[in-house]
Write a structure and sequence with these properties.
The chain is built from 2 helices and no strands. The protein is mainly alpha-helical. The relative contact order is 0.04.
């Protein structure tokens, strides 16, 4: 089977082979892609905060007033039974 040193070296080499691709996927903090993703996240959070504050400031309890553009064109008695 070999000596203990040989088994130790084989274990270290196999660990390096498997750990290499895992560690290669990590991006440094100064990478442009990481900075861009951070900027997008902060922009999205800011937009969401502005959206929530706008919703909070609007009065949602009052129904919107509907405008009738034809109100002056109709006669005084416009019931459906006469049509």
């Amino acid at each position: 089977m070999g000596t203990a040193v040989t088994r130790y070296i084989i274990a270290l080499v196999s660990l390096a082979i498997f750990a290499g691709p895992v560690l290669a996927g990590a991006l440094p903090d100064d990478d442009p892609k990481v900075l861009e993703e951070k900027q997008k996240k902060t922009d999205a959070e800011e937009t969401y905060k502005r959206y929530k504050s706008t919703l909070k400031n609007t009065d949602q309890g009052v129904a919107p007033v509907r405008a009738d553009p034809w109100q002056n064109m109709r006669g005084a008695d416009d019931s459906k039974t006469k049509r």
